[in-house]
Automatic annotation (TrEMBL):
The phosphoenolpyruvate-dependent sugar phosphotransferase system (PTS), a major carbohydrate active -transport system, catalyzes the phosphorylation of incoming sugar substrates concomitant with their translocation across the cell membrane. GO terms for molecular function: protein-N(PI)-phosphohistidine-sugar phosphotransferase activity. The keyword Transferase does not apply. GO terms for biological process: carbohydrate derivative transport; phosphoenolpyruvate-dependent sugar phosphotransferase system. The keyword rRNA-binding does not apply. It holds the Pfam family PTS_EIIC. One of its GO terms (cellular component) is plasma membrane. Residues 4-400 form the PTS EIIC type-3 domain. This is Permease IIC component. The chain crosses the membrane at residues 28-48, 68-90, 97-117, 129-151, 172-194, 214-242, 274-295, 331-360, 380-400. It is found in: Cell membrane. It comes from Listeria cornellensis FSL F6-0969. Keywords: Cell membrane, Membrane, Sugar transport, Transmembrane, Transmembrane helix, Transport. It is a multi-pass membrane protein.
Length: 430
């Protein structure tokens, strides 16, 4: 354990706090309100009711209008994420964050080639503004802010007199880096005619394919449980690296549904959220239920009651640190391996067509059956899978929990006997 902590856990924790990865993570997270709200319109456009019903027929007739909010939010998620990455990276360098976000957006838009349409003018291809363009968004955001930082540290800026309002002064400070980025990106995409999105697609295609395999879904699940067992927020560590890929999957799935095409990906983040981490990392809702039904020690009886409601809403830090699971050899084993089992079951259930792939970003604090139902666009079979996985986690946790509960019970009884002897030996002063 010391070897793993020294050579894997600690370095990975440091990696998750690396400046650029942190900016990407925060940029992606900043777009979640738009992704959640936009994806809800997919459910309205494709309601989970029989096709023969009046509601479904009405939704199909008005699908174009219903999907406009989706196309202006989730469908162009990379545009929002680009601003978020640029903003957060510039902020970490103590540069003007607003300028950082704006220069990143300008750089990203210049990777797109406008299309001329008769009677319409020039239009932008929106496909690369969605999940498809996410990796390009990360690259150009970092590039743009680094140019901005280079100009700032080398004093290659236009400085205004102190009497000039700060907002105006910041605008002129950004003038030279903006000019450089715009000219450089124009040279690449317009003059040289290089399709940067195609180049990035070719470079990351092995990663995209691997992330949707069984090994690709099991690896992050294992690592997240492993880091949590040391008290390190596993999703923060692995999510900093994997979340852009998960968002790309989610965007592609949503686009496929909107276009009436087959859903291509198994493993967006919503797959893990609703079918694997039920109650939180480690699928600890099953452990909480074991506490409620089988706990004999006073401590775990009380803990089960107090953590039930948070666990239903996928908040399990009280369980992880209160039980504790961290550095607890009796509970680390099921905490790590139960999600691997439920991941395997959910993966094959999805790939074999027993449940629909997820494509809607439902709020993560919803109870798992509701979240799974919404994220699959109203597939009732997703609810069944969630209940099956809860039952599996509950059954597997029981023997490990009972060992730990007996240990605590023995300690409580020993403490009670010690207290009793102490009181019996006290002199009677009456």
């Amino acid at each position: 354990m010391d070897f793993l902590e020294k050579y894997l856990s600690i370095p990975m924790a440091k990696l998750s706090e690396q400046r650029h990865l942190r900016a990407i993570r925060d940029g992606v997270v900043s777009s979640l309100p738009f992704i959640i709200v936009g994806s809800m319109f997919l459910i309205v456009a494709f309601p989970p009711v029989p096709e023969s019903t009046a509601l479904y027929q009405w939704a199909q007739e008005h699908a174009f209008e219903i999907l406009i909010p989706y196309r202006m939010t989730m469908f162009i998620m990379s545009l929002y994420i680009t601003f978020g990455i640029g903003y957060n990276l510039a902020k970490s360098y103590k540069l003007d964050p607003l300028s950082g976000g704006q220069i990143a957006v300008a750089s990203f838009l210049l990777t797109l080639t406008p299309i001329a349409l008769d009677k319409v003018g020039f239009v932008l291809p929106m496909a690369n503004l969605g999940g498809h363009g996410l990796f390009m968004a990360m690259i150009v955001s970092i590039f743009s802010v680094e140019i901005m930082r280079f100009c700032k540290t080398r004093n290659i800026t236009i400085k205004m007199p102190e009497q000039v309002p700060p907002s105006v002064a910041r605008s002129f400070e950004a003038l030279i880096p903006v000019a450089f980025v715009v000219v450089f990106m124009t040279l690449i995409t317009v003059v040289l005619g290089i399709d940067l999105h195609s180049l990035v697609d070719q470079a990351v295609s092995p990663i995209v394919k691997a992330g949707d395999t069984l090994f690709g879904v099991l690896l992050p699940v294992f690592l997240i449980g492993f880091f949590w067992s040391f008290g390190i927020h596993g999703i923060s560590v692995i999510g900093a690296v994997a979340r852009p890929l998960w968002e790309k999957y989610l965007g592609a799935n949503a686009e496929a549904v909107a276009a009436g095409a087959p859903i291509p990906h198994v493993a967006p983040e919503t797959f893990f959220q609703w079918f694997v981490w039920i109650g939180g990392s480690g699928a600890t809702l099953g452990l909480v239920l074991a506490m409620l039904f089988f706990a004999k020690s006073s401590y775990l009886k009380a803990l089960g009651k107090t953590t039930l409601v948070p666990s239903i809403f996928n908040i399990n830090e009280p369980v992880i640190f209160g039980t504790p699971i961290v550095l607890n050899p009796m509970l680390i084993i099921p905490f790590i391996f139960i999600p691997l089992i439920t991941t395997t079951i959910a993966y094959f259930a999805t790939t074999l067509g027993f449940i629909s792939p997820t494509y809607v970003m439902a709020p993560w604090t919803l109870p798992a059956p509701i979240g799974a139902y919404l994220s699959t666009g109203g597939d009732w079979r997703a609810i069944v899978l969630v209940l099956v996985n809860i039952g599996i986690s509950f059954v597997i946790y029981i023997p490990f929990f009972k060992m730990y509960d007996q240990k605590l019970l023995d300690e409580e009884q020993a403490q009670a006997e010690e207290n009793k002897e102490t009181h019996s030996n006290e002199p009677n002063l009456a």
